[in-house]
Write a structure and sequence with these properties.
By secondary structure, the protein is α/β, with parallel strands linked by helices. The chain has helices at residues 21-32, 47-56, 67-79, 84-88, 92-104, 118-121, 138-147, 153-174, 183-186, 230-250, 286-291, 307-314, 323-329, 347-354, 357-374, 377-389, 399-410; strands spanning 2-6, 34-41, 60-64, 109-112, 130-135, 177-180, 198-199, 220-223, 255-259, 276-279, 294-297, 319-322, 338-340. The protein has two domains: 2-203 and 377-410, Glycogen Phosphorylase B (Rossmann fold); 220-374, Rossmann fold (3-Layer(aba) Sandwich), CATH 3.40.50.2000. It contains 17 helices and 13 strands. Helix 2 links the parallel strand 2 and strand 3 (60-64). Helix 1 (21-32) crosses helix 16 (377-389), helix 7 (138-147) runs antiparallel to helix 8 and helix 10 crosses helix 14. It is globular and about 70 Å long. The two termini are 32 Å apart.
Length: 411
C-alpha cells in the first residue's frame, strides 16, 4: 500500500524507548508499505534533524514555519474565528505540494496523527480513505489548560479547545476509522452514529521497564497519579492526608513517594504530610520502581490511566488503583492489580500488600505478564497498522459528500 501520514514533527529520539506513538506507528508502517511522511516544523535550523529523519523515512514532505510570525498569525486566527493550532501548522507551500502529489500518485490511505494536520487531510480527494488517530485528543489538552487559568488566559484556551474540537468532529465524520488512546478520550470524540472510535492505548517499552529482584527493606509506596495541575495536587494532598497516616499506623516505617518529571511547584507541599516524600525531575523512574514495594494510582472517575501505571506493572511492581482505572486498562481486579472502589478506599489493599510479601510477588509477576501481552509497543502499533491496512476497502459510497461537508465545517 501507498500511505500518506500527516503528523507532528518527529525528531528522532535519542533512546529507542523515548520514541512517541507517532514515531513507532510511522516505523511500523514504513516496514511493509510505501510511506510518505508529512509535517510542519518551527525549528529554526532543522537541517541536521531532517537529514537523520530522511535516512529512516526517505519520502518526506514538510514545511518550516517561522515561530514568531506564526505565533502572531495564530492569535489573529483565533480572534477571527479560526483555530490557532491549525493556523500555526498552516503552510500554503505544503498544501500545494500535497495536493499535487495526491493528484499525481495513487495513495491507498491517509493516516492523520495530529489535529493540527486535519486541514491537509480534508483537502484530499474524498475517495481516499482516512484513518485518524486522535490519541488523547488535542482539544482536551487545551480545555485542561483553561481550567487551570484565570481570566483572560482561560478564555483563550477555552476558545481554542472549542475551535479545535470542531475540526476534530469534522475529521471524525470524514474518517473511515478513528482511534483514541483511552476510554475517556473516546467519550470526547463526536463520531457518526454506530461508529465509535476504537480504543488503542499507548504502549510500554517492555525491554526497558524490566522486572527486578526486590530485597526486603523500608516499605516504599510510589504515588503514580499524574500531577499536571492544581486540581491534581489538591486531590493528591487529600489522599496523602487520609491514607498515609492510616497506613503508617499499621506499618510505621512505610514511606509514600510522589514522583514526577515536571511537577507543579505546589506539589512540594505534599511533603508536609508526615511520611510523604516528593521526588522532582525524575528522568528515569526505573531505580525507584525497582526499590519500591508497591505503587498506588488513586485516579478520579473519568481520568485517563497514565503510562506510569503500565511502566510500574511492567517492572513487576504490584499496583493499587480504582475500579474505574482497572476497567479502562482491561485489567482483572484481584489478579493483575488490586482496586478500591474510591481513591480513599485504596488504603486497605495497600495495607494488604504491605503485610503479604508472597501476594506482592505473585501480583507483580502477573502484572508484568499482563503488560507484556497487551501493552508492548509491537502489539499496540500492530493494531494501529491493521486499522490503516483495512481502511483501503472501506470507501464510503457517499464519500464525496462527507468530505465536502467536513471542509464546510472548517470554513
Amino acid at each position: 500500500m501507498k500511505i500518506l501520514m500527516l503528523g507532528r514533527w518527529l525528531p528522532l529520539a535519542r533512546r529507542g524507548g523515548d520514541a512517541t506513538r507517532e514515531q513507532r506507528l510511522a516505523r511500523q508502517l514504513g516496514r511493509s508499505h510505501r510511506l510518505t511522511l508529512a509535517f510542519v516544523t518551527d525549528e529554526p535550523n532543522p537541517a541536521g534533524a531532517i537529514s537523520a529523519l530522511r535516512a529512516e523515512f526517505s519520502d518526506l514532505e514538510f514545511a518550516v514555519v517561522t515561530r514568531g510570525w506564526k505565533t502572531l498569525s495564530s492569535a489573529v486566527s483565533l480572534a477571527t474565528g479560526s483555530s490557532a493550532t491549525m493556523a500555526y501548522a498552516r503552510s500554503t507551500a505544503l498544501a500545494t505540494r500535497l495536493r499535487d502529489r495526491l493528484r499525481a500518485d495513487t495513495y491507498d490511505a491517509i493516516c492523520v496523527t495530529s489535529s493540527s494536520m486535519i486541514q491537509y487531510a480534508l483537502d484530499a480527494d474524498p475517495a481516499v480513505p482516512i484513518v485518524m488517530d486522535f490519541a488523547e485528543v488535542d482539544s482536551r489538552w487545551w480545555l485542561r489548560q483553561a481550567r487551570e487559568r484565570s481570566f483572560p488566559g482561560a478564555n483563550f484556551y477555552r476558545t481554542e479547545a472549542a475551535r479545535l474540537r470542531l475540526a476534530e468532529a469534522a475529521m471524525a465524520r470524514r474518517a473511515v476509522r478513528s482511534a483514541v488512546s483511552s476510554a475517556s478520550a473516546a467519550r470526547w470524540v463526536d463520531t457518526p452514529t454506530g461508529s465509535p472510535p476504537v480504543v488503542v492505548p499507548s504502549g510500554v517499552d517492555v525491554d526497558y521497564f524490566i522486572p527486578a529482584l526486590r530485597m526486603p527493606g523500608t516499605p516504599i509506596v510510589l504515588f503514580l497519579s499524574p500531577l499536571e495541575c492544581e486540581a491534581d495536587v489538591q486531590a493528591a494532598a487529600g489522599f496523602c492526608r487520609e491514607v498515609a497516616p492510616a497506613t503508617r499506623q499499621r506499618h510505621p516505617s512505610a514511606r509514600f513517594v510522589v514522583v514526577g518529571r515536571n511537577l507543579p511547584l505546589s506539589a512540594r507541599d505534599l511533603a508536609r504530610v508526615h511520611g510523604v516524600e516528593v521526588h522532582e525531575h525524575v528522568a528515569d523512574p526505573r531505580p525507584l520502581l525497582h526499590r519500591a514495594t508497591l505503587a498506588v494510582a488513586p485516579l478520579p472517575a473519568g481520568a485517563s490511566p497514565p503510562t506510569a501505571i503500565l511502566e510500574a506493572m511492567c517492572a513487576g511492581l504490584p499496583v493499587v488503583t480504582t475500579a474505574a482505572t482497572a476497567d479502562d486498562l482491561g485489567a482483572r481486579p484481584g489478579a493483575d492489580l488490586l482496586v478500591g472502589p474510591t481513591a480513599e478506599a485504596c488504603g486497605e489493599p495497600i495495607a494488604q500488600l504491605l503485610a503479604n510479601p508472597t501476594l506482592r510477588a505473585e501480583m507483580g509477576g502477573r502484572a508484568a505478564a499482563f503488560v507484556r501481552a497487551r501493552f508492548a509497543w509491537d502489539v499496540i502499533t500492530a493494531r494501529l497498522v491493521e486499522m490503516v491496512e483495512k481502511a483501503a476497502p472501506l470507501l464510503p459510497s457517499a464519500g464525496a459528500g462527507n468530505g465536502l461537508a467536513a471542509k464546510a465545517d472548517l470554513a
